[in-house]
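Message: I would love a firmer grasp of how sequence relates to backbone shape in proteins. Thank you; the sequence and its tokens follow:
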Amino acid sequence: MKRQNDLQLILAITAAALLAACAPVKEAKETSPPVVTGVSVVTVHSQSTTEYYEAVGTIKPEITSVLGAEISGTVRKISVKEGDRVRRGQVLAVIDSRAQQAQLEAASAGIEESDQGLEEVRQALQAAEADRKFAEATFQRYKALLAKTSVSQQEYDNAETRYKGAIANEMAAQAKLKQMEARQRQAQAQHSSAATMLSYSRIVSPIDGVVTAKSVDEGTLVMPGTPLITVEQTGNFRLDAGLPERFLGLVHVGESVPATLGPQQVEGRVVEVVPAADPSTRTFVARVLLPRECKCQSGQYGSAKFAIGAGDRLLVPSNALVQRGELEGLFVVDSKGVAYYRLVKTGKTFGSQIEILSGLDDGERVAVSKIGQLSDGIRVQTS
């Protein structure tokens, strides 16, 4: 009986030992590294890319007219307010013109006076011409008679003197005519000047557009040069963008540039490059003409991208980048299908791709999907 019990004990111990020996094998199978399937990878190569500089600026109308006073006087009437649409030739304001009206009336009187004087001189010249012709004929007749001794020397001398006097009178009348003609031209010029000054009392819009500023009110005394009303053309806008002066020789008139205007993405064209840089900001202005269909407002913020160079860069999709605190890295997949986390230094962004400056070599593969399921040393199965 005792032997039978000892045999059962030995069998129990042996069974327990066998179970203990099998347990590590099961645990080893459970702790084997998992495999992440369906991971997309890309092979990284250097790519030729164009570098852009995004410049910000302000949208402005292609034409802005600041209408100012050209004469001094009191503003009698203003017919528009901010936001009103106006047409070319429309009267926007009126300045007191009584002084200019008086000058115009005086100039008109001067023209009438010069016209009368000119007519009188012309009549006097006709009389002088007739007198000279008569005196000339008399002189020629006396000259022939003197040769025949039919008249005395005294009579001949008197005829010659009258003829010379008639010539002098005719020349004086001709000179007077020229003087009166010059006086008439002067009177006409004064009349034209007075009419021009009178026209300055009416402030007229030179373009079709919208009133964006009204700088004075009725009753204000203004001087020449005082801004009164600002009119901006609608439909044609441009973006005045500021770029660092180091890019001055890289922006050219006529090139197309993509522009961002709030939610809008439009294609613009460089129409002017201001060659002088602002000494305070060290920037120059490039003016970009925007398409007519863009929904723009004067003073709106906008930006444009200018091509400033090209070169070869190592680019990876932006969604492959893994941010850990202030560090950036990628999951690089080796030839055995194992993913390793590697720190990298990034550069500029080019659309949906980002430049890698260091930490990655040409030809390596990086994971671009299921990034959240990856860890350092994990096996992956690519899709």
In short: The chain has four domains: 33-50+313-382, 52-61+234-309, 71-96+201-232, 98-197. The two ends are 68 Å apart (CA to CA). Residues 1-5, 23-30 have pLDDT under 50 and may be disordered. The CA atoms of residues 29 and 168 lie 140 Å apart.
